[in-house]
Amino acid sequence: MRSIVRAWLVLLGLVVSAVAIAQPVVVELFTSQGCSSCPPADVLIGELARRPGVIALAYHVDYWDDRGWQDRFSLPEATQRQRGYVRRLEKSGAFTPQIVVSGDTSLVGSNRTAVEKAVAGDRDALRMSLSKEGNSLHIYFLEAWRESMDVFLVSYLKEATARIDGGENAHRTLKHFNVVRSFQKLGTWNGRPQRMVTPLAELPRDASAVAVILQRKNQGAVAGAASFTLH
Question: Which helix (H) or strand (E) holds 42?
Fold first, then answer.
């Protein structure tokens, strides 16, 4: 398969370095350092993050920040993305820890059995690859599809340890994995094989990896994804 992809890229006149082909399952956790129910879900995300074929991402929401402890990893973009899933999946409201698998299955993030079952489910995925060339990320869409989709870039910190001095987790030291540091929409993929290029210089300094998510409109099901380690 790699030789076929490389040949396709060569035909386009592209110079490719460190290309990674992936068709993984995307697991998105919505969590907070201020939530006493979240540490078991954080641990589960760490286990999934080490598993081949899974892109596990931990979004720290900001609506816990006024409850005794401000999470230094919290992002308004994380809260906005969770609210998008609440609307689209017709949930009664946002909660933590929440896990969304492949953009179409919402679960309690600490329910290990249910999460494992959802991750193991059969799903089709469009092939994508990523490469870093200079200070730019090159995204290769390797297949054609009948509909356009949104393209999102997520930067994340692979591992962090935090001492919590207030709130529900006061006096605990928590381990975090694949902590989302930035989230942005890059544009729309038109359904044809092509390359998209985006700069990396403006990503947060503590981001050690990136993931690109191809998702159906209105925050629908995830149709493809790939990740790349920056350093």
Answer: helix 39-49
With H, G, I as helix, E, B as strand and everything else as coil, classify residue 190: coil
The dihedral of CA 122, 21, 104, 66: what is its sign? positive
Per-residue pLDDT, 124: 83
Local confidence band at 123 (pLDDT 50, 70, 90 cut-offs): confident
DSSP string of 94-149, one letter each residue: --SSEEEETTTEEEETT-HHHHHHHHTS------EEEEEETTEEEEEE-S--SS-E
The amino acid occupying position 67 is R
User: Which two three-digit tokens encode residue 52?
Assistant: 């081949």
Q: Is the pLDDT of residue 59 over 90?
A: yes
pLDDT tens track for 84-100: 999 999 999 999 999 99
End-to-end CA distance of the chain: 26
How far is it, in rounded angstroms, from Cα 184 to Cα 5? Answer: 27
What CA–CA distance (Å, rounded) separates 38 from 207?
A: 22
Residue pair 71/33 in contact by the 8 Å Cβ criterion: yes
pLDDT, position 78: 98
Q: Is the pTM of this model over 0.85?
A: yes
Measured between alpha carbons, how far is 61 from 134 in angstroms, rounded to an integer? 32
What is the C-alpha to C-alpha distance for residues 187 and 2, in angstroms, rounded to an integer? 27
